[in-house]
Amino acid sequence: MKRRTFITRSAAVGTGLSLGGLALNSCSGFGEKKITILHTNDVHSHIDPFPDSHGQFPGLGGVARRASLIKSIREENPNTLLLDAGDIFQGTPYFNFYGGELEFRLMNKMGYQAATLGNHDFDNGLEGLLAQLPNADFKFVNANYDFSNTPLDGLFNPYEIYEMDGIKVGVFGLGIQLKGLVDPVLFGETKYLDPVERALDIARELREEKGCRLVICLSHLGYRYREEDLMSDVRLAQLTEGIDLIIGGHTHTFMEEADLLPNRAGNRVLVNQVGCYGVRLGRIDFTFDNQTGDAKGKSAVISV
Amino acid sequence: MSKYLKIKLFVLFITICTVTGCRQQDSSVSAAVVSRIAIDSTYAEDDSLTTYIAPYREHVNKTLDSALSYAPATLTKNDGDRNSSLGNLMADLLLKMSDSLMRLQGQPPVDIALLNHGGIRSIISAGPVSARTAYELMPFENTIVLLEMDGAALTEMARYLSAEDRPTPIAGMSLVVDENNRILSVEIGGRPLNQDETYRLVTSNFLVTGGDGMAFLGKARTTTDLGYKIRNAIIDYFKITDTLRTGVDDRFIQRQKP
Fold first, then answer.
1. β-pairing, B7-14 with A280-288?
2. Domain endpoint, select from B45, B65, B85
3. What is the pLDDT of residues A244-290, one digit of tens each?
4. Strand pairing of A114-115 and A139-140?
5. Is B2 near chain A, with CB under 8 Å?
6. Same domain, B115 and B61
7. Any chain B CB within 8 A of the CB of A67?
8. What is the pTM assigned to this prediction?
9. I want to staple B166 with a disulfide (CB 3.0 to 4.6 A). Which of A90, A99, A260, B117 is the partner?
């Protein structure tokens, strides 16, 4: 298979680069800390691997394999955060039969720590989502849906903070405009708030008030659109500041490279997305200097 | 073994600590390495998860694969010029199941059913027919919508149907066009279309919200989503139908030059 040879060949390049990285960084001393971010998006109830005869993803995916991969990465680095950017629901009969229960329970077993809501997570309505929430041991984060007049009122935080090896990592979530995409009967009185305004507020709060050294946005806005005025991860990155990493979803984009975009303050933001259906796992290893650093008001990633 | 991972590293960036003699940068992140890992058979399955999933999978497969009905012949949506065996089956069952639901609720009967050619996602192979067949035919979560439409809107619908080069699934309406696609007759329930009457039509919410450019649906007097999924209507129909007897018929025909 083409895909296979391509990936195997690039593995060699990868090893070289990462060794190079270690060598270059060695001057920052033994005190440096490493945090690993693992991510999926748009898994869409895909629990079993695709059959070998599948036209697009032959023999790929499968939750039980993803679980062992995640376990091995956690053994390598216990300071690992496992995240999902939404659209957990809908796509196989598992969802039609169990309404998302199995998806959530398996995510618990894999040790997911946070997810955000995708448009398909509303496919069984607000009540359908509410009914499944007790099955999730992980947190849902969303900062731009106002659920105050709905049964979901008070059930989601805009962000969560995870402290690993003394480093605080803030994770917040942004959802896509549901109007025109989801049947209004399903999302009811949910109000959509401007993602850019919310992102600016939350990123500032996480960085300046909560002391986060890494700020991650779990976004279900979509990578980018031909219609320039549609909000997307690329636009969000450029119009905001204080975000280090945007983990995207919705557009099922298999990015061959992560984007590194300038934000409005001139710092750089990473944007990454790993397609769909759990056929890939995204991994980002952040290395932190031993000193605390002044993270206030700045994106931690890269100021070259 | 991690060295063996199907990893592609594609971004590596490092603050240039050599330049500043290893002093602290504005940033506290000194490097970020992004990789993506294709999940394939080189990763062993985690046994505890495989075991956990098994009963769910068995239940789903057993339910999906148990025979509900039987197809004596393979049905496709392309076996006729202006109507097809599978299109007719789908439109007929949509009409029948929606009509039963309406009668159950004490509402007037349904006159017409309309689907789109592209919305039928698979064939029905000769042999046993199961719920899995319904998932293949209709993988989407579309629901049935009931529209009240006047004669003028239905005339527009007849024009749309006659201009389509692929057979559009219809039931309850019959249509005759000449060799130039000019409409010769339109009948609803066996009677000529009456411009002054209001008819009840069922279709997919996908088409009502603009799918396939069926603008005439926008002229409905009322629009009511029945909340009944098309796939569930298919499954329910299979359950009450022993053998799927259908075929290309004369509900939509084109007269040829004498």
1. unpaired
2. B65
3. 999 999 999 999 999 999 999 999 999 999 999 999 999 999 998 76
4. parallel
5. yes
6. no
7. yes
8. 0.77
9. B117
